[in-house]
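User: Earlier you gave me the apo prediction for this protein. Now I'd like the version with flavin-adenine dinucleotide bound, so I can compare the two side by side. Same sequence as before, with the ligand SMILES added.
Assistant: Got it. Here's the input I'm using:
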Amino acid sequence: MPSSRAFDILVIGAGPAGMAAAVAAASSGSRVGVVDDNPGPGGQIWRNEGHKPSTREAAAWFEQIRSSSLDYLYATQVLGPIGSGVLLAEISGCAVELSYDRLILATGARELFLPFPGWTLPNVFGAGGFQALVKSGLPIEGKSVVVAGSGPLLLAVAAYLKRHGADVRLVAEQAPIGKLARFGLGLWREPGKLKQAIRLKLSMGATRYKAGCWPVAAEVGAVTLSNGPKTWREPCDYLACGFGLVPNTELALALECSMAQGFVGVDTLQRTTIPDVFAAGEITGIGGLDLSLVEGQIAGHSAAGDEVSARKLFGRRERARLFARGLDRTFALRDEVQTLARPDTIVCRCEDVCYSSLAGHGSWLEAKLQTRCGMGACQGRVCGAAVGILYGWTRTSVRPPIFPTPLGNLAGT
Amino acid sequence: MSEGRVVVVGAGIVGTAIARALARDGHHVIVVDGRPVGSGATAAGMGHIPVMDDSEPQFALSRYSQTLWDELSERLPASVEFDRCGTLWVAADDEEMVEIDRKKRFYDERGLPSDVLDSRALLREEPNLRPGLAGGLVLPRDQVVYPPCAARFLLDEALSMGSEARIGTPVVAIEGHGVRLANGEQIEADAVVNAAGWHAATLTPGLEIRPRKGHLIITDRYPGYLRHQVLELGYLKSAHGSDRDSVAFNVQPRRTGQVLLGSSRQYDISDPKVDRPILERMVKRALEYMPTLSRLSAIRVWTGFRAATPDSLPIIGPHPEHPGLFLATGHEGLGISTSLGTAELIAAQVGGRTSPIPPEPYWPARLMTVTPHV
Ligand SMILES: Cc1cc2nc3c(=O)[nH]c(=O)nc-3n(C[C@H](O)[C@H](O)[C@H](O)COP(=O)(O)OP(=O)(O)OC[C@H]3O[C@@H](n4cnc5c(N)ncnc54)[C@H](O)[C@@H]3O)c2cc1C
Ligand SMILES: Cc1cc2nc3c(=O)[nH]c(=O)nc-3n(C[C@H](O)[C@H](O)[C@H](O)COP(=O)(O)OP(=O)(O)OC[C@H]3O[C@@H](n4cnc5c(N)ncnc54)[C@H](O)[C@@H]3O)c2cc1C
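And here is the structure of the complex with flavin-adenine dinucleotide:
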């Protein structure tokens, strides 16, 4: 029997974008609810940091969240829309209906997995996922780790692992050194970012950081890396691997919001194409912390009808976007990492579909129907983006529920 | 090759089965579909292959088709997930047990094996059913397939016998001797088969078919949870019943260990969106029979459209007014099952041979409103 809750403004996702949106929206006196499937706020970057923020900025935002008048629904998964202005969610296994006048989507991003031989082995993890595992208690003291893939997340994860006693052997960044240097210079225009980068680099100490190389195969106890001309084995207990981020657009798609280049399309006030539905943070474009925060604030103000406050933040958002564009250019995936899969490499873990059985299909729909790729428990969350890169297919629709849920929750009242 | 050229419109399970039968008979077949193979109703359907007892013609076609599936089963690739899991019809109370006895007699008289279960045997066969149900009837020869791969297999067989497939461009008109595609291309043929599923009427006006929407839910993997395709006796009432929306308990074990749950019926809705109220009714109905289903993790809900006819029988045969045009549609909730039988009927008619089973009950003329000649 689902219970129900009603809000003026409902924010889905309590990462930086959702936190900022909720705080801004609550300042108008509206009844604001915040939903996240984690046990507390913070999203990916500040996961589990509520009581021990890692930076002053994080501390300030947690403090604002605490002092704002908000309704929290943590450990709550939104399963999808079930009518106009109503979402179905699951709290500790039970169904609950959440209704809203205005909705802010801040569902963030997940890691991009690119299939390569050995990527499904138990010693291979997503970089961010591995960090999350360590945050929730995986002992890492003295273990050797290679962090590989692409993007600033690699540095953040490597630094975190080191702080927790891991022996980080190598950070392997696929982007060429030239691009990184140009991006480094670009950082001068973003002093905050520069400080973050320097701090990360300093805390890396003896760890090797190599640009222009990437993983080509993993085995238990080692990873094989390549820089093109040269290929070598690097022993390690764990391989933490991330090739970038993929927006969590499922809920936006289920609400029928229009997409723009794979992200949720928004106007200057962070409005989606669906009336009274706003979006902020990584679902509108991968842009890092600052952009997520300022987009969240703008979305919160405009959802609360305070266009004036929203407009005051446009300049800051523009600067953050410049940085995001630089990120995009710098860490664009080279062809070599997009073609790592061998014929027998598993692409869809849930349904055990390998690379060769997908080849030859004309579209995602056809491949899905014939091979069941993306039809398992994760519903294409992991393989969907990889298949997009490997074959250029795009997913056009999502099926409810967004997350698996006990069947009984679909029985209504 | 001596026979003529035939265009088959639609690469669902019905169109691909027809293509295969015609190719085997020596025709040059061109299958045309605007969308990927088996992605229409065929992708939505449950793939249950039962022998039905609701009318003599339905029995004749479903039984004949099942024997064809049996013959084919040895050659089906693993991807088709052919499984002779049997059907278990459940009687909730003593009143329904009377109907079980009638069913049993019906199958006995026609030489089909079936086993009556009492209340205890029922629980032994399907321990997840609620205790207290009166009994049931097992039809051990009934089968299950995964329809999109079955359609792909049938098409591949047709292609291996010289057929062609034009996938990606829809037919905009069936004219004189052939079809016209959306890109303007004309394909000439001696015969055309309209197997466009519930869209058939847009190409052949006057066909009395209505879309009938259904919902399905699939769960994560629970090997051993279920052994048979299990249906409530009321399923037939739901399938044939009036215009009202209806639901029935209908659950299927997949080879993967997943559980596929149906079913709902709604007329005249063309919006494929999940309809919350009827989905809730469908789940509630299922939980009345199998309460532990409520704990299984549901990973996906989808909808599909059956092509329903006023007399619940498919439309198979020559168009009453247009020589060279054949129709194969209106299979409602049985098109996966009866695709192979349908294909043999059409192949016999196109080839001018005697039908393997009496074809009259399925003739299009019985339902078609006569169009005035121009
Ligand atoms: C795995 C990972 C680790 C990262 N680590 C770092 C790092 O260490 N340093 C760094 O600078 N950047 C990191 N990033 C990047 C950082 O997350 C972004 O730059 C930015 O902070 C994202 O903010 P956001 O609010 O848009 O999204 P997120 O922080 O992703 O927050 C979205 C939140 O919404 C929740 N959510 C999504 N869908 C639903 C739903 N249907 N129901 C309920 N809740 C839902 C998610 O669980 C999540 O908590 C990481 C990203 C990822 C994917
Ligand atoms: C929820 C549900 C459960 C079901 N369960 C079962 C079951 O358990 N057992 C069973 O036997 N049946 C079942 N069915 C019914 C079964 O799915 C259908 O009867 C069967 O798939 C019909 O096949 P078809 O080839 O006629 O139609 P479709 O699969 O719809 O194929 C028609 C094809 O024609 C194409 N087409 C349409 N218009 C054009 C055009 N203008 N030009 C070119 N191509 C065109 C379409 O793209 C489509 O591919 C179920 C149906 C539903 C909805």
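For your comparison, keep in mind: The interface with chain A takes residues 35-39, 43, 79, 148-149, 152, 167-168, 217, 219-221, 261, 274, 276-277, 279-280, 283-284, 286-287, 293-302 of chain B (CB under 8 Å).
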